[in-house]
Amino acid sequence: MSGSEERIGKIVNYFSRISVAAIQIERDSLSIGDHIRIKGATTDFTQEIESMEIDRAPVNSASKGQDVGIKVKSRVRLNDIVYKL
What we know:
Helix content is 0%, strand content 55%. By secondary structure, it is mainly beta. The mean pLDDT is 95.
């Protein structure tokens, strides 16, 4: 992977029982297959997006201004920053 990271959004909610993070997309777009990094005070991991939902409906991509739910492999916290790799 290249060393470039682009801030794409932030965590606005986290559902611990189902390990789903709600991401507010602030710029660009996010699609299934994209690799992201989630970073915060105690959070720092990368993963590939394997599925995403908007209002509980599966979608292939989300764009600026939308909130999207994705399954995450680790705990995230409110206001953690999401970068697209």
